[in-house]
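Please decode residue identities from the backbone states below.
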């Protein structure tokens, strides 16, 4: 991994294992290697390749997942080296798979399809070169022609998808405009994946958003009115995660842009997580790219029921400004959270009303 990663190798691999589990795979083991620079042909060194190969045969492994993005050449060389039907993929492909499984709305499905095609495009080339070589050079040039044909088809499909997405977004925007014409403030929940956003949303609104101990349970922005009176609309956003593939960030940018139209941002943190601080940083990094610095923020330290010393955590929260401790699961601290939200909204009501035609 590069120096920009906030997470250590162990933690990153642990998260990768959790992602694999979310995708429905059973993880049988993991390994890593320290190299000065990745091997351009196989990413890992030849000794490591041999070691993994023997583990594949011993354990009957079907898939090998790499935590960093692999080039088309590396993917294929590894697949060849491991032999048989072993599938090699990287974190990006895995996340794309999960998003694909979980896209619930038409828009999300389009976004994922687009991201998948953009991921495939640069990886088409060598696959055909490889087939050409297999054919013993007899069909020289044919592979190359085929790549061009395939690339053209893919580019056309990408173009069609982009147009369709545009029209779906326009429709959603109209819907959103109708929403702001009633002066109801919109509160957006943001936070690292698995922080407890869906659970909190369900608790507060009685909605049934899928909440599970898996990554990316939520893919689509969900908006719900608060149960007790229509004081504010809560909207849940797609989970943030480290090393989110750039193709996906681009695809979901429009979804995230809804955040910039909210009256208040509630940053939900799983304070029981050993890497809570790094997760906060990862979320802040994405937020800083979204131009939301003028929107008031409130931070929620969730899952206080899970920490070993809740009293200490609560004291720590009190010391800080704009932090409220809750347990979305038990309901502890929710009243305090709601009044903190109301307090914050008082300041931003002017802004909301200014939007009303
Ligand atoms: P999201 O990805 O941020 O939407 O997270 P979810 O709402 O899906 O929650 C992820 C997991 O954390 C689920 O298994 C929840 O039951 C669990 N969870 C959420 N809130 C709490 C909490 O306050 N305490 C505990 N112990 N678990 C929680």
């Amino acid at each position: 991994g590069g120096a920009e990663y906030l997470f250590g190798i162990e933690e990153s691999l642990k998260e990768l294992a959790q992602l694999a589990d979310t995708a429905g795979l059973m993880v049988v083991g993991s390994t890593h290697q320290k190299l000065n620079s990745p091997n351009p042909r196989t990413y890992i060194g030849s000794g490591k390749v041999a070691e993994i190969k023997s583990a594949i045969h011993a354990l009957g492994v079907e898939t090998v997942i790499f935590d960093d993005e692999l080039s088309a050449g590396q993917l294929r060389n590894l697949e060849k080296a491991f032999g048989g039907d072993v599938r090699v993929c990287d974190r990006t492909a895995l996340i794309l798979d999960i998003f694909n499984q979980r896209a619930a709305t038409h828009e999300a499905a389009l976004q994922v399809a687009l991201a998948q095609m953009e991921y495939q495009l640069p990886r088409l080339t060598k696959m055909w070169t490889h087939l050409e070589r297999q054919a013993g050079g007899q069909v020289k040039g044919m592979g190359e022609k085929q790549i061009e044909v395939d690339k053209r088809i893919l580019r056309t499909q990408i173009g069609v998808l982009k147009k369709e997405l545009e029209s779906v977004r326009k429709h959603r925007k109209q819907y959103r405009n109708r929403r702001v014409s009633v002066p109801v403030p919109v509160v957006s929940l943001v936070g690292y994946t698995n922080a407890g956003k869906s659970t909190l949303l369900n608790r507060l609104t009685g909605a049934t958003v899928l909440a599970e101990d898996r990554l990316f349970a939520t893919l689509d922005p969900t908006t719900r009115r608060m149960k007790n009176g229509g004081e504010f609309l809560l909207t849940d956003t797609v989970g943030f995660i480290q090393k989110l593939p750039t193709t996906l960030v681009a695809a979901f940018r429009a979804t995230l842009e809804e955040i910039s139209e909210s009256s208040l941002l509630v940053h939900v943190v799983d304070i029981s997580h050993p890497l809570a601080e790094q997760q906060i940083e990862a979320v802040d990094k994405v937020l800083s790219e979204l131009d939301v610095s003028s929107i008031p923020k409130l931070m929620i330290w969730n899952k206080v029921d899970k920490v070993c010393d809740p009293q200490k955590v609560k004291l720590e929260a009190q010391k800080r400004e704009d932090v409220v401790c809750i347990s979305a699961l038990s309901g502890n601290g929710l009243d305090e959270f709601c009044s903190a939200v109301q307090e914050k909204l008082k300041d931003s009501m002017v802004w909301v009303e200014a939007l009303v035609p």
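Observation: The pocket of guanosine-5'-diphosphate is lined by residues 191, 193-199, 211-213, 217-218, 239, 302-303, 305-306, 327-329 (CB under 6 Å).
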